[in-house]
Every structure is written in C-alpha cells, then in structure tokens.
C-alpha cells in the first residue's frame, strides 16, 4: 500500500493489515475490530494519507479449479 503522491512507501500498512485480519477471524470480535479501525483512522489522519493503492503482483494467477494435465 502506498499513499497517493507518497511514492512507494508503506504508510499505515500494519494498521490496515491488522484490521483486515481482524474481520476475517472467527469468532468475529467487533470491539477489537472497531479499535483497530480507530487506530487506522488515527494513522491516516496523522500521516495525511489521501488514498490507498494495492501493489501490483507479478506472479501468475493460481488455478483454483485444478490443473487439466
């Protein structure tokens, strides 16, 4: 992730990753995820992030249906 205009530096990446991982957990801990959301929001405001982008991955896509070899 990078901030728009901020080059390739990772800004608030750990906070964003923590929040994404929180919402995937079972059981879902809404209070924990809200705290992580607030942490990400504070980071975004402090670092003046305007937009997040995903880094492009050059790896070939996996075939989830299996190989037909």
What does this structure look like?
The protein is 43% helix and 6% strand. With 69 residues, it is mainly alpha-helical. A two-stranded antiparallel ribbon has the order 1-2. The chain starts with a strand and ends in a 16-residue tail after the last strand. It comes from Trapa incisa.
Put the structure in a nutshell.
By secondary structure, the chain is mostly helical. It is 43% helix and 6% strand.
Helix vs. strand class: mainly alpha
What's the total number of strands?
2
Number of helices: 2
Average predicted confidence as pLDDT: 82
Main sheet characteristics: 2 strands, antiparallel
Strand order of the largest sheet: 1-2
Q: State the order of secondary-structure elements, H for helix, E for strand.
A: EHHE
Anisotropy-based shape: flat
Evaluate the radius of gyration.
16 Å
Question: Into which percent range does the helicity of residues fall?
Answer: 40-55%
Organism: Trapa incisa
Protein name: CHCH domain-containing protein
């Amino acid at each position: 992730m990078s901030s728009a205009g901020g080059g390739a530096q990772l800004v608030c990446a750990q906070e964003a990753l923590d929040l994404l991982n929180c919402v995937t957990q079972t059981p879902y801990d809404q209070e924990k995820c809200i705290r992580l959301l607030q942490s990400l929001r504070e980071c975004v405001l402090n670092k003046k992030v305007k937009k997040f982008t995903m880094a492009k991955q050059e790896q070939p896509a996996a075939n989830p249906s299996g190989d037909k070899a």
